[in-house]
């Protein structure tokens, strides 16, 4: 599971993908205490990156995709408007690029 880093009094960040250079299932991260979620995807040259969410009570298997929030085919910043319990980023199609994905959230103190 990706680790979470506090970056401000009420902000946290988690690295969901780090230098991915091929297809990957990604790993689920518990975002249940996050009030807002923004995902930054970068390094996409020729690939499809999928942001996935789940409201399952227990952590899904990393191989499970659950609900696809959105496919991403270029670098971008995506606001997640739902409030899932679990979030992950996977690379379903890969040709080129070194892909990173970061989630940033606001938490209540």
Descriptive notes:
With about 110 residues, this protein is mainly β. It has one domain (about 5-105): Jelly Rolls (Sandwich), CATH 2.60.120. The protein is about 0% helix and about 65% strand. It is built from no helices and seven strands. It has strands at about 5-10, 10-20, 30, 35-55, 65-70, 75-80, 85-105. Strands 1, 2, 3, 4, 5, 6 and 7 form a seven-stranded antiparallel beta sheet that branches. It is globular and about 40 Å long. The two termini are about 25 Å apart.
List keywords for this structure.
globular; 109 residues; mainly beta; 65% strand; 7-stranded antiparallel beta sheet; Jelly Rolls; single chain
CATH architecture classification: Sandwich
By DSSP (H or I, 4+ residues per run), the number of helices equals 0
Question: Which class in CATH terms?
Answer: Mainly Beta
Taking the alpha carbons of the first and last residues, their distance comes to: 23 Å
SSE order: EEEEEEE
Radius of gyration over all CA atoms, rounded: 13 Å
- Assign the CATH topology: Jelly Rolls
Overall tally of domains: 1
Poorly predicted residue ranges: none
Q: Helicity level, as a percent range? A: under 10%
Mean pLDDT: 94
Structural class: mainly beta
Q: How would you characterize the largest beta sheet?
A: 7 strands, antiparallel
Question: Which percent range describes the beta-strand content?
Answer: over 45%
Report the count of strand segments: 7
Taken from the alpha-carbon principal axes, the silhouette is: globular
